[in-house]
């Protein structure tokens, strides 16, 4: 009992000689004045007190007193011992301490932890989506908040419920920037969602800014309501985009004036946009999965391919197919036999027949030449025989005359 009485007496004595005020957290709006009270200080001079400041403006403790000069336009001690900061800023965040002695010799201390804040304007959604496709990752929009301090956070909500990023159906890309002069923050948050079959037909999205300091309400953007279009639910394993080009007639060979039909088939859903290429040059045609070439002519010959562009699987080009135009003569030759194969056979037989006829003509000519030469060789022999016969006839005539003259 005596020990307890003694302890109580010591507590009373310490209370009479001085008291320490516990540290307080002070929140001040940037640009507004701030007054910190020095507890225990006499209300009027003379006063025994001093303020010590450790903020972003100081490298060490800064000491201010009623007898000293004010610290430029940053802070000064008022006549009642309080400390005035005319326009608090980000650099004024820190610790403030006051030590005062009352007229009765009682010492008091005050500790303050000062933090500043700035509430930004209402956030907004930039580039909002007008429609979403089920099963396809789509950007909903970018939420932007400018001029906050501390930075704070942005969050997305769907039909009034917070959206939690999971890296699959909900993807959020965030960016924080700080102004080099004002020190205020700009926040950006981009939302990408992949709606599943059965999700709300008319979803409502909005973005919310939450200040970093407590007891400050959140700020919400205006809601957006994109249209939802049906699509397929993506499988657990992503199917690569496959593009196939079909041509009719098969093989790409068509008579001049005929019709060629090219059909581009892409495996992915929703349907891809199809563009056409001829000989490596894009054709200036609107997107279409079918390319029709009526009354085909020589100008339509070439290598054709199609390019499929899918919103989530990118772009892929099909293998090329060749379009060949047959002229009219080739078509008639082929038609007289009954087909391209029979026409080729008839052409080969015709060539062989022509070669045989030419060989017969050459043989006849050669035989005729040989016969003519034989006749030329026999002609001189007959002439000599005739000359010999003439000479014999002449020699017989004189003999006959002489025999006639010698008779009676």
Automatic annotation (TrEMBL):
* Region feature Disordered, mapped onto this chain: 370-408
Q: Which residues form the signal peptide?
A: 1-23
InterPro entries named in the record: CD80_C2-set, Ig-like_dom, Ig-like_dom_sf, Ig-like_fold, Ig/MHC_CS, Ig_sub, Ig_sub2, Immunoglobulin_dom
Gene Ontology process terms (BP): regulation of inflammatory response; regulation of p38MAPK cascade
Localization, per the record, is: Cell projection; Membrane
Q: Mind telling me which GO cellular component terms the entry cites? A: cell projection; plasma membrane
Q: Where is the composition biased (Acidic residues)?
A: 382-400
Q: How does it sit in the membrane?
A: Single-pass type I membrane protein
Q: Which UniProt keywords apply?
A: Cell projection, Disulfide bond, Glycoprotein, Immunoglobulin domain, Membrane, Receptor, Repeat, Signal, Transmembrane, Transmembrane helix
Q: Does the keyword Magnesium apply?
A: no
- Transmembrane segment boundaries: 345-367
- Can you provide one Gene Ontology molecular function annotated for this UniProt record? signaling receptor activity
One Pfam family of this chain: ig
Query: Which positions fall inside the Ig-like domain?
Result: 31-115, 123-220, 234-322
Q: What is this protein called?
A: Advanced glycosylation end product-specific receptor
Species: Dipodomys ordii
Taxon lineage = Eukaryota, Metazoa, Chordata, Craniata, Vertebrata
